[in-house]
Specification:
about 575 residues, 30 helices, 6-stranded mixed sheet
Length: about 575
Amino acid sequence: MAFVDSLLRKCTSLSHIKQLQAHLIITGLFRFYPSRSKLLDFCATSSAGSLPYATAVFLRIQSPATNDWNAIIRGMAQSDQPTDAIACYRTMSRESSYKPDALTCSFALKACARTLARSEAMQIHSQVIRFGVEADVLLQTTVLDVYAKSGDLDNAQKMFDEMSIRDIASWNALIAGLAQGSRPSEALELFKRMRVEGLRPNEITVLGALSACSQLGAIREGEKICNYIRNEKLDTNVQVCNAVIDMYAKCGFVDKAYHAFEGMSCRKSLVTWNTMIMALAMHGDGVAALELFEQMGRAGVSPDGVSFLGALCACNHAGLVEDGVKLFDSMAGCGVSPNVKHYGSVVDLLGRAGRLEEAFGIVNSMPMVPDVVLWQTLLGACKTYGNVEMAEQASRRLVEMGSSSCGDFVLLSNVYAAHKRWDDVGRVREAMKNRDVRKVPGFSYIEVDGVIHKFVNGDQSHSNWREIYRKLDEIRFRIEAYGYVPETDYVLHDIGQEDKENALCHHSEKLAVAFGLISTSEGTPIQVIKNLRICGDCHAVIKLISKIYSREIIVRDRARFHRFKEGNCSCRDYW
């Protein structure tokens, strides 16, 4: 065996492997599976080998041993076609006289994780239990990982809870799965529990925890993790540095994101530059984003499609229309072919500026078929500028493409409502009812003392709701003294004026801001995350609140950040 290992280490090409195979056949060693399996494994998984050749050799073996199967399944699991590994595992289970062992199951499960094959993973897991190899810690972690990656978080949590011994891979798998599976609060709690139990998070752990903080806007917890990263010298890892930049930006602190970007001790990757450009774009600092885009080129880093998308978004959010069009036209010269997202961004850029005919022309002249998002973008611009005819065209295209998003119907309904065409509004709502399309409810998050509080429109479920509503009454009284008049055009229903004003007053972002005012000390910034775009009335109200109460208020909505300070917003009212 040592002899074979020594020769395999000297193999640098498929030709060398074939020579060794010939030697093993001549000497009779190829009939003995330990030597044969090592050759197959090396050929199937190393850069010097060839998986197709290893498979061809494998198929000539009359009665492959378990290790022979393992070599081929492992190679397939690592290949561009990991589903082949699952199929090979099935064949082994059904036809071979040799049964799968812990390694076989582990390789097949890794293939399931790569292909998000949840049902196949469940079948293999049941076989693992039957084979009696479930107690293997690495195998248990692999099962947990595939459940987490395929979105079956309940089974992943169950697996984790039942493990008698947990290694750091098992913790990382569940933290990452929860963070990626829209359960960031649980991911953050698990990270804290890990620290309490005396385990030392590594680079993979903090990536999952930082992702959870980014989703929640949990800046305090994020900064604790950043302190841990510095103390443990994990900031030499560029992926960790990129995640720190992203966390600060998504929590509303683009200045801290830029400080982390500038202070990196490791070499900046293309992803680093792209992350910072997009951060500046989402915060409405288009000029700084374009400057960084140019600086990236001077640093010898060639922009890719993501770089251009970030720069286009920066132009979009800052209203830099001509810069954006020029940038879009320059893509081909940089060797980057625009994709549908780039076209969507420039259509949005023109649409926000009211240049609807140009935007519509681009949609119709695209070299690829416009997707649903692009037509929705155009429909949104039609709503902003009240172009009923173009809105109807965009809506028809969306229906033809089979879109059943509530947003499509709501946008068209809003266009009609803005023109007081209530019969058409009724027709759209009837269509929504017939298709069982329901409007996505608006909700907002705010973190206070490490606890996440969630509000929905008109919410009275919070334990402090009476105090929150009293604060809203106070806010309304004080902003009216500054000349505030409710922008009831944003309540596009055929209802009375008083009902419209009450509906506006209790939007989720207003409830979250009011809670922030009563729950934090004077001068403390207030951060709110909203799942939908902030409405015009809320935008106007929060600007006044920031002035009257001398508070900096950061609202992250579905599209971008709004930083309110002293009666102004970072978006400069262009959004």
